[in-house]
Amino acid sequence: MQFPIQRLLNQATWIKVHVYLALIAGFFFALMGLTGSLSVYREELDELLNPELVIEQPEGKRQSLDKIMAAVQAAHPNRYGSWTLELPRSSHGMITVWYDRPRETFFELYAPLMVSVNPYTAEVVASRFWGQTATTWLLDLHTQLRVDRFGWNAVGMLGLLLMVSVGTGLYLWWPGIRGIPDALRIRHKAGMIRLAFDLHRMIGLLSVSVLLLLAFTGINLSFPSILETLVGSSGMEHGETGRNIISTATPNNHPVGLESAEFVARGPFPKAELRRVTTPAGDSGIYRINLRQGSEVNRRHPYTTVWVDRWSGQVKEVRDPSGFTQGQTFATWIWPVHTGEAFGATARFIWFLSGIGLFVLYVSGLLGWLHRRGKVKDRDVNFAALRPLFFRMQEKGYRGSVALFRFTVSLLQRARHYAPQVIKGCAALLQWLRLALMSRQKRLGKNDWEQ
User: How open is the CA angle 57-62-66, to the nearest 5 degrees?
Assistant: First the structure.
């Protein structure tokens, strides 16, 4: 006699859970995977689509922050309040100046104005609104399905469902110790459906740890209050700027400029890298200087912050991540882990592949489900039959290949400062795959492998 808990934990139940989750939310999982993969390289893709944002040959020294801010205000004279200057992470990038609540997009959840400025000439190159460019539109689709707050919460729930789906998939895949070699086989001669099933299991196994990590961090980004409650890290969510500090000095005719505020802020952290400067809003406003210390995992949005009074030039408060509690430190890892930047270029490339893999998991799983219901017929997968077609395509596409090669060379020249990181990631992945295949070949034996 089976108890209710035994009936609940049998394999048939978990198969139903896995299948129903895929049918209900699988499309959104695939959508999150594809948009997330593209968003990993959002900045690089934006520069590829907008080559005017790339400085081919940087010359001279960077213009002062005051001169850059003056150029922005001259281009947008009717926008009052606070601006945030974000420094580029390479010598070929633009300074991005953010205006959080422009009147054109005031009622949207998040749609700031992004002003791109050449740091060497102080020339305003482009003024764009978040969500109205290809890369920011994709990122909005990834984070909130383009439906504002409701979508933001829905994406958080999708993250939770994805963890359940991946967990049930791992449970269903587990064949026992002796069955692992057979479970890792890809039988390309057994038909299209069997190949799809084997690919589904293999890709799921290879990406399970990354997908669980991405789902977990995604949930915390959508519902930061959960993490704050668990680890006691109030005010540490992504995008949080710290306490609202106001100036107590008397306004005068000699306010501190941006360059002077940066110089003062570097006092406590002389070796830190300048990342952002937020200008004061109103007479009680104050400079907020964001720096990055070498020990910080968050490269784009570091937590080292210095508040400088615009009237007195004094440091009002300092936030130093080295003094964070364990809970606060844990919170600082959520965003860089989700984007992959916490582990470098190789991790970002693996994150990219994992997002693509999530899409392949959905397609292969859906194909098997449709086959079981008689909607899709199985067929042989004959790779040998593709060889004549390949040779014909090779013959007819020679000129196209040459043109593609030239385009690729041009592309690499434009993005040459990113190429070493991408190549390093590809090389590391290929090396890992080579070692894995060699290990598998030794376990299965040559004859079994060739089958």
Answer: 145
349 closest CA partner among 423, 415, 413, 412 = 423
CA–CA separation, 261 and 29 (whole Å): 45
Give the C-alpha separation, 353 to 340, whole Å.
Answer: 12
DSSP state, 128? E
Asked if 192 and 380 count as a contact pair (C-beta separation under 8 A), the reply is yes
Global pTM reads 0.80
- What does the pLDDT read at residue 437? 54
| Other beta carbons within 10 Å of 42 | 17
First-to-last C-alpha distance (Å) of the chain: 43
Domain boundaries, the chain: 4-37+144-228+341-381+415-450, 51-132, 234-324
- Residues 315/286, Cβ–Cβ less than 8 Å: no
Longest dimension (CA), the chain: 87
Contact between 318 and 268 (Cβ < 8 Å): yes
Question: What pLDDT sits at residue 113?
Answer: 98
Given its phi and psi angles, is residue 189 left (phi above 0), alpha (psi -120 to 50 degrees) or beta?
alpha
Confirm if 132 and 138 have CB atoms less than 8 A apart. no
Nearest Cα neighbor of 47 from 332, 423, 437, 411 is 411
The 10s digit of each residue's pLDDT in 373-387 is: 998 888 877 666 656
Cβ(359)–Cβ(33) under 8 Å?
yes
C-alpha atoms less than 13 angstroms from C-alpha of 378 in its C-beta half-sphere:
16
CB 226 within 8 A of CB 366: no
CA distances from 142 to 87, 134, 279, 355 (A): 25, 12, 30, 11
Q: What per-residue confidence (pLDDT) applies to 449?
A: 34
Residue ranges of the chain with per-residue pLDDT less than 70 = 1-9, 382-451
What is the C-alpha to C-alpha distance for residues 303 and 290, in angstroms, rounded to an integer? 7
Burial per residue of 387-397, b for 16 or more beta-carbon CB atoms within 10 angstroms, e otherwise: eeeeeeeeeee
Q: Which CATH architecture has domain 51-132?
A: Roll (3.10)
